[in-house]
Amino acid sequence: MERLAPVLLCKLEKIFPPGFFNPMQHMILHLPYEARMGGPVQGRWCYSIERLQKILRNKCKNKCKIEASIAESYILEEVSNYTTKYYANNLTSVHNPPPRYNAGNPEDESKLSIFRGQLGSASGATNKTLQHEEWRTIMLYVLTNLSEVEPYMQEFNEQFWHESREPTLEEASALLRDGVGNDMPDFISWFKQKGTTDESMSADLRQVADGCAYRVRSFKAYDVNGYRFHTASHEQSRPNRRTTNTGVFTPGLDGAEYYGRIEEIYELNFDGSKPLNPVIFKCHWFDPEVVRRTPNLGLVEIRQSTVLPGDDVYIVAQQATQVYYLSYPCKTVQRLKGLDVVYKVPPHGKLPVPNNEDYNIDPNTYDGEFFQEDGLAGIFEIDLTEAQVMEVDNETGSD
C-alpha cells in the first residue's frame, strides 16, 4: 500500500480538479507508513484529544506555561477522579457527591443488618395486599435473615425441639415455619409474643417482631446500592429498550450461587416510631444444579428454562447483585443450545477494590497464554498494467 498510494493519488489528480485535494487526500501517503512503523492506530490516535481542545484550553491558568499548565491540570483531574471512586459514600468530594438515596438524617436509619444500604425508588408505586401465605413466607424470610434474631431462633429450637439429636436443615426450617403442632406457635407468632415480654430486646427489633402490614407498595424499578433493578414484566413492556436490568445473583448459605430474574419488588412497612421499610425482591430462580462453571476461565453458564423447586423465592434487596445474561450467537452447536453466559455488573460509579495478587504475577511461572490478535487475512493491491506503471513513474520522476 505504501508503494502504490502515490500511484493512486496521481490517477486521482488526472480525474479531479485541484480544488478536490486537501490534507485528507494527502494523508493517504502517510497512513501505510504509519501503520507499518507504529502498529494499530487505536493506540496512538489523537482524535479524542482534538475533540477536547476547547476543554483543555479552558484548564490553562498559567498563560506563560500553557503546555505544562494543561498537562498538569489534566493529570490532576484524572488522578482525583479515579482515586475518589474508591472512597466510602460518607466521604464526599467533587467526583464523589453525596448519595442520592436515603440522604436524610442518619439517626433515622435503622441499625438492623438488612435495613442498611442506599435505596431509592425509580418508578411510581402501586398498593398491593399480600395473601396470608405470601405474608408468612416474607415475614419468615426477613426474620431468619436478621443476624439479630439468631439468638431467638436458637432459643425457639431449644424450647420446642425434643429429640436427642440436632435437627437437620430441613427439620429446622419446618419447625420455624409450622411449629410442632398441637396448637403450639410457629416462630413468627412466638417471636411476636417474645417482643412484648422481653425488655432486653431493642426497640427496632421489637418493631420488626410485631410484623409488617399486609398492604405493601409495589414498584417496577428500584435503585439499590449503585444498581437499578427492573421487574421482568416492566422490562418486556419497554419498546426498543437498550438496557436489561432484571438479572440478579445472590450467594446461598449452603455455598451455592443462585441466579435469576426479578418478578416483583415490594416495599414492606413495619409500623412504629421509626420508619422501617425494607425492600424485598420476588425472583424467578434458575435451578443451581444445572449451572455449568469453568473455573479456570471464570465462565458461568445457566439455563433460563429451569426453575428452582420450592417456595423460597424472596431476597432482601441489599443481598442482590446485578448480572446480565447473554445467549450464544451460534445456534448450530448442540452443547450451547439453551445456555446463557453470566456477566456480573459493577455498581454504577464505583470501582472494584484492588487486589494485590493482581499485581504480583511472575512471568516465569505464569501458565496462561497472552492473547495477541493476528492480522486480518487478505491483501490490498491496485491492479495496474506495466505500461500504466511506467507512465506514472515517468510523470512523478520516481525510480
Key traits:
399 residues; alpha+beta; three-stranded antiparallel β-sheet; 31% helix; 17% strand
TL;DR?
The protein is an alpha+beta fold. It has helices at 5-15, 23-26, 31-38, 47-51, 53-58, 66-84, 132-144, 150-160, 169-178, 187-197, 203-209, 232-237, 386-396; strands at 119-121, 125-129, 215-219, 221-224, 227-230, 247-251, 257-267, 279-285, 292-294, 299-302, 314-316, 321-327, 340-344. Strands 2, 3, 6, 7, 8, 9, 10, 11, 12 and 13 form a 10-stranded antiparallel sheet that branches.
Strand content: 15-25%
Based on secondary structure, the structural category is alpha+beta
Order of helices and strands: HHHHHHEEHHHHHEEEHEEEEEEEEH
The overall average pLDDT, rounded, is 80
Quaternary form: single chain
| Low-pLDDT segments | none
Terminal residue distance: 17 Å
**Number of DSSP strands?**
13
Shape: elongated
* Computed Rg: 32 Å
Number of helices: 13
Task: Please give the largest β-sheet.
Answer: 10 strands, antiparallel
Helix content: 25-40%
